Amino acid sequence: MSNELINRAIKIIEKNDFGTYTIPTEKLYPFQWNWDSCLVSLGIAHSNEDRAWTEIETLFEHQWSDGMLPHIIFHERDDGYFPGPEVWGTNTAVATSGISQPPIAGFVIYQLFKNAQDKSMAKERASKLLPLVAAWHDWFFEFRDPASTGLVSIIHPWESGRDNSSDWDEALDRVPSNELINYPRKDTKHINPIQRPTNKEYGKYMALVELFKKHKWNNKVLHDVSPFQVVDPGFNAILIKSCFEIGCLANELGFSEISEKSFSQSKKSLSALETLWNESEGQYSCFDRKSKTLIKSHSIGCILPIFANIPKERADSIVSTILKLEKECKYLIPSHSPVADKFDSSRYWRGPAWLITNYITIIGLKQSNNSKLAERIINDSITLVEKSGFAEYYDPITGDPCGGKTFSWTAAMVIVFLKYKSNTMLQRDS
Ligand code: GLC
Questions:
Q1: Ligand 1 centre from 77 Cα, in Å?
Q2: 154 has which bridge partners?
Q3: Residue 366 burial (CB < 10 Å; 0-12/13-18/19+)?
Q4: What predicted TM-score, i.e. pTM, was given to this entire model?
Q5: Residue 239: partners with Cβ closer than 8 Å, 6 or more residues away
Q6: Is residue 4 among the annotated active site residues?
Q7: Which of 13, 21, 23, 29 for a ligand 1 pocket mutation test, highest count of atoms within 8 Å of Cβ?
Q8: Active-site choice (163, 179, 316, 375)
Q9: What is the 3-state secondary structure (H, E, C) of the chain?
Q10: Which atom of ligand 1 is nearest to the CA of 71?
Q11: CA-to-CA distance for 292 and 101, rounded, in angstroms?
């Protein structure tokens, strides 16, 4: 069974492969997305290490001169997606969006390096990528944390990767909505609109894009002019982990300056993350930098910090929080708690389960010695795919597929999970 599933997963990634990059899925997302590519490369690496490195290299070929790594690279024209390159108007050689996405590349590169069969190729390719990733991390600390608190803001919900999470609702209230403008949305032509953001949300997303474009995508001013500045604990945890991992990689490759700086960035941010801990909820909270308030929410973003090396007692509390969610839905992990007011089981990031956030949580559970719960989440993930195919996301109550079909990162996570399972079985047998 598992070989059959792995083969199906490989076929999906091959179908979405454009030679040097992989699209998330046809029609809905016909370009290269930043954190999708990174996570997809982990799946590709199991059958083709060379191609896995290329995936990340292609992404970094489009890094901005200030260090920013864009969230979309519009390699080839395709009218199936809105907002396309002309709307962003970033004026790059190959068109890109003007915002970024969760910085998982550093973590992924170290994974590719550690698990490589071809060590000399890994050394050569990781050495070239290392300074680029370090520059991207520096960019975050310089431009998204102007007060040097150790924590970075996202200035657009799309940067979080959890686009329409209810975590952003209050901060988005401050953004004037362009909802009356009839944007030519394409997503709702491909997907049932009840599984996508509302027009009101889209109006706000577009208002932010237009504001940043008015400021010519100048990162020196964007953070401060943005009415939306939110510190997302999940996003910061990914940055903390990536800084730590490239610190280790740089150490092994003999880049001592990058190593020291990355460890110190990771250390400073990890201690700043403590300011977001919410003891009564047993998880972290998002922070609205404009209103200076913690955002009350029960989202996966507040659980993801287990991915960073948080203190043991924090990890234990997060495990209890996940175990509560286990009683509230059939399939872990919902992107919002099913008992929260705004929970919506099929709408994008307002409730559904996603295999990529499962993966990030699983890494955290494994490193904090919670392998049993990690295995439970792996099993749920596989069951979802067996039941409902390689969907973009899943209803955590019914297990029904939602969003796009034949999704690359879902396929990649299946490969990674099934390999884990067979390794664990091997360890048990020996
Ligand atoms: C959606 C997701 C985002 C992802 C993109 C492409 O916008 O919210 O995280 O990168 O789709 O799959």
A1: 19
A2: 230
A3: middle
A4: 0.97
A5: 102, 103, 137, 140, 152, 269
A6: no
A7: 29
A8: 163
A9: CHHHHHHHHHHHHHHCECCCCECCECCCECCEEHHHHHHHHHHHCCCCHHHHHHHHHHHHCCCCCCCCCCCEECCCCCCCCCCCHHHHCCCCCCCECCCCCCCCHHHHHHHHHHHCCCHHHHHHHHHHHHHHHHHHHHHHHHHCCCCCCCCCCECCHHHHCCCCCHHHHHHHHCCCCCCCCCCCCCHHHHCCHHHCCCHHHHHHHHHHHHHHHHCCCCHHHHHHHCCCCEECHHHHHHHHHHHHHHHHHHHHHCCHHHHHHHHHHHHHHHHHHHHHEECCCCEECEEECCCCEEECCCEHHHCHHHHCCCCHHHHHHHHHHHHHHHHHCCCCCECECCCCCCCCCCCHHHCCECHHHHHHHHHHHHHCCCHHHHHHHHHHHHHHHHHHCCCCEECCCCCCEECCCCCHHHHHHHHHHHHHHHHHHHHHHC
A10: 10
A11: 23
Q: What is the pLDDT of residues 149-189, one digit of tens each?
A: 999 999 999 999 999 999 999 999 999 877 667 788 888 88
Looking at residue 190, what is its pLDDT?
A: 87
Q: Ligand 1 within 6 A of 33 CB?
A: yes
Taking residues 33-50, report their average pLDDT.
98
CA trace torsion 358, 113, 312, 349 (10° rounding): -20
CB 228 within 8 A of CB 156: yes
pLDDT, residue 365, reads 97
Tell me, in angstroms, the distance from the centre of ligand 1 to residue 277's CA: 27
| 392 catalytically annotated | yes
- Ligand 1 mean position, distance from CA 428 (Å): 37
What are the tens digits of pLDDT across the range 363-392?
A: 999 999 999 999 999 999 999 999 999 999
Of 99, 159, 163, 406, best ligand 1 pocket probe by most atoms within 8 Å of the beta carbon: 163
Q: Does 36 sit in the ligand 1 pocket, CB within 6 Å? A: yes
What is the reported pLDDT for 180? 65
Q: What is the mean pLDDT of residues 138-153?
A: 98
Contacts of 104 (CB under 8 A, 6+ apart): 35, 38, 39, 238, 242, 360
Nearest to 167 by CA among 157, 158, 159: 157
Averaged pLDDT of the chain: 95
Q: Give the list of residues 6+ apart from residue 186 with CB closer than 8 angstroms, or none.
A: 79, 80, 81, 82
Number of CB atoms found within 10 A of residue 114's CB = 13
